[in-house]
Amino acid sequence: MTKKIQRHIFFLFILGLISLKISAQYNIDFNRFSVEDGLSSESVLSITQDQKGFLWIGTMDGLNRFDGKRVKVFKSFYNDNPIGQSIKITTLLADSLNRIWIGTNNGLYLYDNRVDSFSVFFHSSQDSSSISNNSIKSLYKDRRGNIWVGTARGLNKVEFKKDKLSFLTIRLKGYTEFESANFSCTYDSENGKLLTGSDKGLIEVIIGKRYNCSVSFT
User: Fold this and answer.
1) Averaged over 174-187, what is the pLDDT?
2) For the chain, which terminus, N or C, has the lower number of CB atoms within 10 Å?
């Protein structure tokens, strides 16, 4: 056996020992939850946790709330939706008032724990303060407590005026492609700017007074 082969075998032996040591240090146990445990569907699309510790799970077939032992399924809140049982819970967000924002493939829902009720918001071509599109792709709360809704056609900021909820669609003159961008994710940087991912690229939103926004494509 040549020295070169010996060195190669020794290297593989040491690598194997390192791998065994790492496996021993990071022994992770998994528990699987399925429809047998009460989930409305095994296709899970989104998860969030509220201030009471409940886990909210969005699936291809209904909204679920898990308390650590049991699962409660919510479906009836979208019975009146035009696409009915084809609703998919695409994204979830729990806010500081312990409300659950529920993004779906057809409309944005809001569940208020305090009164156990759901509200729904759809796009309307007759209302400029409505959400820009019914296909909700992302929900995000920034450091200021503002809630941003990314849709298949545009980015929206939720506004509250005299207990009335409306949506400010972020627009920039000269960039028509920006208004039709699909916003799939948002991140709040430490310098006070929002970074939003879209199918038109990574976009930086600079928030000024009265929420006037300037946008640069990066």
Assistant:
1) 72
2) N
